[in-house]
Amino acid sequence: MAGTAADQRAEKDAGKKKVERQRGAGWLTVLLAAALLCAGTSFAVEDLAQLQKRFDAEHDGVRKAKLLQKLGDAQFAKEREYARANDYSAVGLMMEKYRDNVRVAFDALKKQHPDAEKHSSGYRQLEIHVGVGIREVRDVILAAPEPYRPPMQLVEDDLKAMDRELLQLLFPRRPGEKPAAQQGAAAPKEPGNAKPPEPEKKP
After folding, report:
1. Which of 88, 95, 66, 69 is CA-nearest to residue 157?
2. Taking the complete model, does pTM exceed 0.70, yes or no?
3. Of 12, 24, 112, 181, which shows the fewest CB atoms inside 10 Å?
4. How is the chain split into domains, by residue range?
5. DSSP 147
6. Is residue 166 a contact partner of residue 112, using CB atoms and an 8 Å limit?
7. pLDDT above 50: residue 38
8. Could you tell me if 122 and 109 are in contact, meaning their C-beta atoms sit under 8 angstroms apart?
């Protein structure tokens, strides 16, 4: 009997220790998940800041335009986070910063590689991402309260203007379009085909 009682107490003690270990493991899992969540949030913020820093430091136009793809995506993610918090002032600032980054990358490309038709690398990536940016700012305009819409419409207009210029530089000879120099000029008449003026008809 004494042995049986001792065995039962040992089993109870073992059961208690097992439960305590399970509870400890549960709390450890919760704490670890919370730490990872915090680390992920700070990493996202640092990632955007680091991308902006790399973009600002980059002097090559092609690399700058390609880097804008990652930076722009990070800016859109942050802008959506602000929108979920109804912080449309921060949303506006983020989209204006994106527009400014596009302009900087575009200016660097035009300065270093003016012939986009022959050297399209950078131009193509920039044009594609600007198209994404136009859709993004359009979504912001539809969702934002009225006072925040006019500045975003200016951003949209600026992005659309740059997109048109990018397309013109990439495809300067589009089918059905005359070169700019010929668009306003009338076609010269051949002397042999010129019709003499008709005599005035007398009543």
Report:
1. 95
2. no
3. 181
4. 22-172
5. G
6. no
7. no
8. yes
Question: For 115-168, what is each residue's pLDDT tens digit?
Answer: 999 999 999 999 999 999 999 999 999 999 999 999 999 999 999 999 999 999
The residue assigned the tokens 């986009």 is 116
Choose between 152 and 1: higher pLDDT.
Answer: 152
Is pLDDT of 202 > 80? no
d(C-alpha 107, C-alpha 110), whole Å: 5
Count of other CB atoms within 10 angstroms of residue 69: 14
What is the 3 state secondary structure string of 14-83? Answer: HHHHHHHHHHHHHHHHHHHHHHHHHHHHHHHHHHHHHHHHHHHHCCCHHHHHHHHHHHHHHHHHHHHHHH
> What is the rounded distance in angstroms from the CA atom of residue 111 to the CA atom of residue 129?
20
